[in-house]
Design goal:
single chain; mainly beta; 23-stranded mixed sheet; two-stranded antiparallel ribbon; 25 strands
């Protein structure tokens, strides 16, 4: 099916090139990057099990056919390749999977990332139907591609988008194996101040066939919150708050149920220092579960689609292949983290960003050492990030990135198969260094 879709899109592009100029307008764009990086001691022990040095390339090609003022057909392709390896799986690197001696680029993955129709009706309604990108609550709730429908009503100073996402489809005709998301996120305001209340509802009659919700049978989970953005001259501030509620029946015994009671709060600040530098910071807190034996689920949790990148080592960052032990990566839950930093611009072509992060678990974990002694730990550590960006030629940017994590006791603990944590005796601090060359058009 994927091959047919790719061939169909290629044929469409050929037709677009050959069509008369008066027939339609074609808009082309894209993004390209090549990264070379090394990640060391992410397992935080002497095993070097997660050590990795790799070069990879990603290309995205965007094509939009503008049929008229009210109708567009949008298609985006993505091509991923790990140099010397047989592609990637799930966006994470699988090194060394090509046959020995195979140096070509055959077998790399080509994906139809987006394919949707974008249309306007009546001067105040916009619709998008198909495979499209979605973004909600700065990524704390959703920042991913999805299959579904978005219908937006807009006017002077406001927009109200309604979205239906088919998150999971078992492929059976019973109608009992789907998981659906429904969301609404109206925005009111202008460039100086905007307010976006939002809500999202995840529903399924039988959610256990989807890996992300395999623990549950009937699922009724909802989120309510708001984004606030304010620009006050050289200073800008943003705030986000989310409450998670609802309930779900357990797959192991549908007569038993759990209640979702979790929340997330986040804030950010940026101050422009005359165009030559800035001061910036952000912080977020997402609840954990202080009692895993009761029926209240208090860890902030989104089944799939949540993606909020933060620190380089603990939160994916530029080299988003792996994170340090027990960090939540981009799936923000059971964590408290804060950041302070500055970006200095010596010239128009050069910028230097210096950032420090501190992170800990919202609810501690119990760690057992070799002598059977236990302790409760929550410190993930302090991380230092450096990023130097330089525009080699117009449109082509080179980034140099380095990061080092002073690992806390919660990082230097290994989770066992039974869910308990063991103290790592010979602990080490994770670090990474790398470069990225990128362009967009």
């Amino acid at each position: 099916m994927k091959k047919i879709a790719i061939l169909g899109l290629a044929a469409l592009m050929i037709v677009a090139f050959c069509a008369p100029a008066s027939a339609l307008e074609s808009i082309f764009g894209g993004y390209w990057q090549t990264r070379a990086f090394s990640q060391r001691d992410f397992s935080a022990d002497e095993s070097e099990a997660d050590n990795l040095t790799v070069v990879d390339t990603r290309a995205r090609l965007y094509y939009t056919a503008v049929l008229n003022d009210n109708l567009k057909f949008v298609n985006n392709l993505e091509i991923d390749a790990v140099w010397g390896a047989d592609g990637t799986r799930g966006g994470r690197i699988i090194p060394g999977t090509k046959a020995d001696g195979d140096l070509d680029t055959d077998g790399v993955g080509i994906e139809v990332k987006h394919s949707y129709v974008d249309f306007n009706m009546g001067g105040f309604i916009n619709g998008k139907v198909g495979l499209q990108p979605g973004f909600l609550a700065r990524g704390f709730l959703f920042d991913a591609d999805f299959a579904g429908v978005t219908l937006s009503f807009y006017g002077e100073g406001f927009s109200i988008p309604f979205t239906w996402m088919r998150a999971y489809e078992e492929g059976k005709l019973s109608g009992r194996d789907e998981v659906d998301y429904f969301s609404v996120a109206p925005t009111f305001g202008n460039e100086t101040f905007s307010f976006t209340p939002f809500g999202m509802y995840a529903y399924s009659n039988n959610a256990q066939n989807w890996e992300s919700t395999s623990e549950f049978d009937a699922l009724n989970m909802w989120y309510a919150g708001a984004d606030i953005d304010a620009n006050m001259g050289p200073a800008s501030v943003w705030l986000t708050g989310i409450y998670q509620g609802g309930d779900a029946d357990l797959a192991i015994d549908p007569s038993q149920s759990v209640d979702f009671k979790a929340w997330l709060a986040a804030a950010g600040l940026s101050i422009d220092m005359g165009g030559v530098a800035d001061l910036h910071g952000k912080a977020f807190y997402a609840t954990g579960d202080d009692d895993t034996t009761d029926t209240d689920r208090e860890t902030f949790y989104v089944p799939a689609g949540q993606s909020y990148y933060w620190a380089e080592i603990m939160g994916y960052g530029v080299f988003d292949n792996q994170v340090s032990r027990n960090a939540c990566a981009d799936q923000i839950g059971n964590i408290m983290a804060g950041n302070l930093g500055t970006t200095i611009k010596p010239s128009d072509d050069l910028s230097i960003s210096l950032d420090a992060w501190y992170a800990k678990l919202a609810e501690s974990i119990v760690i057992t050492d070799d002598n059977g002694n236990t302790s409760e730990e929550d410190e993930l550590g302090i991380e230092a990030n450096v990023k130097i960006s330089y525009q080699l030629v117009e449109g082509l940017q080179l980034d140099l990135i380095g990061a080092y994590l002073f690992a806390g006791d919660a990082t230097t603990a290994a989770k066992q198969n039974d869910g308990t944590y063991r103290k790592i005796n010979e602990d080490k601090n994770p670090y990474e260094i790398g470069t990225r060359l990128s362009l967009s058009f």
